[in-house]
Each structure stands twice: as C-alpha cells, then as structure tokens.
Write a structure and sequence with these properties.
The protein is an all-alpha fold. The chain contains 13 helices and 2 strands, in the order αααααββαααααααα. It has a two-stranded parallel ribbon.
Length: 234
C-alpha cells in the first residue's frame, strides 16, 4: 500500500476502494504475486475499515477498531507514545493481535466486522505460508459473511488453490465468480484472473477471453493488455 495514503483511504467509499484496489493490483503485479492472498484481502478491505470507523460507533466496530490498534503498537525498547499500545516483544504483539481478531471473528460471526477480522487472520496465514489455515478461514467467510466479502474471499481462495497446485479448483472458483459478480469482484476481474490461470496450459483460449477486453480505456483494459503480455508466445 505504498502509494495509498491514510487520507485517500478515509475519503473513498467502499465501492471506490474496490476499484482502486483492483487498479493497484494490476499495477503492482510483482508484489501481489509475492504476497498472494494478503495483497487482495488487505488492500481491498482497508477502505471498508476506515469507512466503518467514520460512522456511528457500534459494539462491533469498536471491537474491531481496538483489535486493529495493535498494528500500531510499539515494541521492545521503542519509546512509548501517547495513545499507542506497547508490547515487550514482537511475539507478544502478534499473539495479542491474533487473539483480539479471533475474538471479533468469533463473537461477530457473519457480520461485516467479523468478516474483516477473519480476512486479516486468513491473510496472515497465507503470508506465512500456512495455506491450509488460510483456506479454512477464507471458506468460513464465503459460508457466513455478506456476499460482497464472500466474493473477495472466493478470489483469495482461487489464489490459495493455485499456490497449492489445485488449478482445477481455482478455475471452478473463478468461473463461479464470473457467473455471480458483485460490487467487490466484477465479472471482468474474475475473467482476467481465469485467463491468466488457464493461459499456462491453453494460451489460445486465454487470448480469446482477454482480447475483447483490451479496447476499453479503463483499469480492466490495462489489466487485460498486461495479462496478454504474460501469455506464452504463439
């Protein structure tokens, strides 16, 4: 999120965040591939978190906000700062964060805030290489959270399946997203990701999917052109 500022995140609405998140991922492919699901989950959900914090406080939002405060906590010999938490070690900080997010996810299961907490935990697991745990948590979001979050979780699940070598599962998930688009995951985005997936084995089919999308002057067309450039030569 090096090109996004806190001011940007606070001013954008959630639907705009999704659009910008997709544009960011298309322009920072190396980072998104490196970090896998965490890139998708955190970039897209972050705008929703700040949007929630601006509205009337609720118990769910307050609990989530308290859990996320831990991210800014100081550690060890770092000087404590007013309003910030402090932990003796990074391990203690990580444990406290996981515990707080886990409590939000469990207590507010099925809510937006519960889904956001689950996203963070799933993304952390993916970033650490624990794909089994990541898959479990993303599936929990799909099964219980509002559909907009479920769609994001499915997109992350496709990434996890690909990382696990389960291309058939990833393809099935992406085709389902194409058939059931949402405000958070459009048909075009799912189609581009599907084309990149099948392009490894069937580049001609992938080109047929991508070429009609390259004519629009949008983030989608730029992503389609970039995806075409990544396919094996004819």
């Amino acid at each position: 999120m090096d090109r996004r500022t806190r001011k940007d995140l606070k001013s954008d609405k959630f639907a705009q965040e999704v659009k910008h998140g997709f544009e960011f991922l298309t322009e920072h492919k190396e980072e998104s591939v490196r970090y896998g699901a965490i890139a998708l989950a955190v970039l897209v959900v972050a705008g929703g978190i700040f949007l929630f914090m601006r509205h009337q406080a609720t118990a769910r939002e307050e609990a989530l906000g308290q859990a996320l405060r831990i991210d800014n906590a100081t550690v060890g010999n770092a000087p404590s700062q007013p309003g910030l938490l402090h932990f003796a070690t990074a391990q203690e900080k990580d444990q406290a964060r996981d515990k707080a997010l886990g409590e939000v996810a469990a207590k507010y299961h099925g809510s937006q805030e519960g889904a956001i907490a689950e996203f963070y935990l799933a993304s952390d697991a993916a970033d650490k290489g624990n794909l089994t745990e990541a898959e479990k948590r993303f599936r929990e979001i799909v099964d219980s959270a509002p559909k907009e979050y479920g769609a994001l979780a499915k997109l992350s699940l496709a990434q996890v399946s690909t990382a696990e070598g389960k291309d058939a599962d990833a393809e099935k998930t992406l085709r389902d997203l194409m058939a059931h688009p949402t405000v958070t995951v459009s048909k075009d985005e799912a189609q581009i990701r599907l084309a990149l997936l099948i392009g490894k084995k069937n580049p001609d089919e992938a080109r047929k999917m991508l070429e009609p999308m390259r004519t629009e002057r949008t983030a989608v067309s730029r992503a389609a052109v970039q995806a075409l450039g990544e396919l094996p030569p004819r």
